[in-house]
Amino acid sequence: MGKVHVEIDEQLAKMIRAQPVFFVATAPLASEGNINLSPKGLDTFRILGPRTVAYVDIIGSGVETIAHLKENGRIVLMFCAFEGPPRIIRLHGQGHPIETHSPQFPGLISQFPHYDATRAIIVVDVTRISNSCGFGVPLMEYRGQRDHHFSWVQRKGLDGLTTYKAEKNRRSIDGLPGLAE
């Protein structure tokens, strides 16, 4: 049932763009380190080329993805169809964070909506593109985005977000370096 693709063609791109949520997984090199799996939502994902994708990384309680990518670059993104035909797409690759102070940041961020809580853009050079059936994925109806993120950001304010990043996003739960600033 599964298939490996050479690139993200228009059919794959259409399915990927239709998903309101995707999942990101990374892991440190240390065998005792914690594997990270995070759901991502909002309008944060872009296909930059047939083998390059990116997403806006928004401030969170941890900084595992950024820390793992800085250490070893390994990442997989997974898109599941919760409506329509059953399908799963996985994009394996080498990722790297483009933090807000990077010279590359302004050019990339212009391709996304503005989010006050943006802390980086994760760019992935895709090395393996595969799809599988998704027969076990339930059918679910999308009802919309939650507003919790936006109200949390508003309560924190820009100064509060800066403080939060400094306190929560400098190191991963395993002690790996996270955000530089």
Quick rundown:
With 181 residues, the protein is of the alpha+beta class. 23% of the residues lie in helices and 33% in strands.
Provide structural commentary.
The protein has 181 residues and is α+β, with helices and mostly antiparallel strands. Helices cover 23% and strands 33% of the residues. It contains four helices and eight strands. It has helices at 10-17, 64-71, 105-109, 148-168, and strands spanning 3-5, 22-26, 36-40, 45-49, 52-58, 74-80, 88-99, 118-132. The longest helix is centred in the C-terminal third of the chain and has 21 residues, at 148-168. It is globular, with a radius of gyration of 16 Å.
Sequence-ordered SSE layout with sheet pairings:
Elements: E1 3-5, H1 10-17, E2 22-26, E3 36-40, E4 45-49, E5 52-58, H2 64-71, E6 74-80, E7 88-99, H3 105-109, E8 118-132, H4 148-168
Antiparallel strand pairs: 1-8, 2-3, 2-6, 4-5, 5-8, 6-7, 7-8
